[in-house]
Amino acid sequence: MEEEEALPNMWFLSSDDDNDEGDKEEDCQSRRQRRSKCWEGCGRPVATCICPLLPPCPIPTSTHVVVLHHPQELRTNKIATLPALCRCLERCSLLCGRRLHPGASPLLDSLSAFPSPSSPVLFLFPTIGPSESAIDLKRWVSHTPYASRAEPVLIVFDATWRYAREMVAASLPYLERFALQVQIGDGCDAGMEGASTFESDVVLRKEPWKGCLSTIEAVARALRVLEPEERGPEIEERLLAVLRAMVAFQAVHLTPVKPRTKLKKKGKVVRE
Ligand SMILES: [Zn+2]
User: Fold this and answer.
1) Is 6 among the domain residues?
2) Same domain, 122 and 257
3) The DTW domain covers which part of the protein (predicted)?
4) Ligand 1 center to residue 38 CA distance, Å?
């Protein structure tokens, strides 16, 4: 189980190295910028390296976190929290793709065929639409004996919200056989806007709805309840400390902008 998807030291190479040949937009300048990345550490440009903010050693957990990340996410999202998350956790496996299916992960295939009494498989994704259903993780933990959840596997999806929803939907035929959908609290409230960087110290970019969390925050909140009582809050806090530091770091490079306004109908101004 442990050797699967072991996090390569330079895991981010895969997302940057598979550039299409003949990519006409790539010029000398972008090649130089890519070369000046923190190759040995966080994978970010050297100028925004966050390695000093990360724990000196990966944090051991009883939970095995499996992240399915969209092929474009790490390439296009300059403030992705996944690199930091992977550096922080000892048991964090990465899968690159648009859906989970038989053959995508030996670990999941094995648990699907031979369920382990102590390793339930959970996938974390909030209820957004009325047709979706996810159980509050805290409630699930309180109703599940410790022996039946001592070494859980937690699957998370890392992508934009639109892509993540598509990835979950495409993975459901496989996941439904052996995994349980969970969420943090009541999940998302599509009727309310999410917080922005200027309103919260753990928000890197504005989320579409209230309750939407970044990948690292979602995993931090989940580990708080999944890990043994004496360890959970500490692990959560260590991950959130990294996120807060990233947000503070990012805020230095951000300039507050006024909400955009657009004219919707005659005389009616709508704030976006
Ligand atoms: Zn770095």
Assistant:
1) no
2) yes
3) 34-255
4) 5
Structure tokens belonging to residue 183: 């969420």
Distance 43 CA to ligand 1 centre (A): 6
Same structural domain, 236 and 106: yes
Q: Are residues 93 and 204 in the same domain?
A: yes
Distance 46 CA to ligand 1 centre (A): 6
From the DSSP assignment, how many helices (H) and strands (E) are in the chain? 9, 8
Question: Count of domains in the chain?
Answer: 2
Amino acid, single-letter form, for residue 22: G
pLDDT in tens, 153-208: 999 999 888 899 999 999 999 999 999 999 988 766 666 665 655 556 666 665 65
Bridge-based pairing state of the strands 135-136 and 179-183: parallel
Domain check: are 113 and 241 in the same one?
A: yes
Instruction: Report residue 13's pLDDT band, with 50, 70 and 90 as the boundaries.
Output: very low
Asked, for residue 64, whether it belongs to a domain, the answer is yes
pLDDT per position as a tens digit, 102-135? 999 999 999 999 999 999 999 999 876 665 678 9
* CA 42 to ligand 1 centroid distance, Å: 4
Range of the domain at 34: 25-51
- 223 shares a domain with 116: yes
Which DSSP string do the residues of 35-85 spell out, in sequence order?
HTB-TTTT-SBGGG--GGGS-SSPBP-SSEEEEEE-TTHHHH-TT-SHHHH
Does any domain span residue 13? no
Higher pLDDT, 268 or 252: 252
Distance 63 CA to ligand 1 centre (A): 25
Q: What is the distance in A from the centroid of ligand 1 to the CA of 101? A: 33
Centre of ligand 1 from the C-alpha of residue 221, in Å: 24
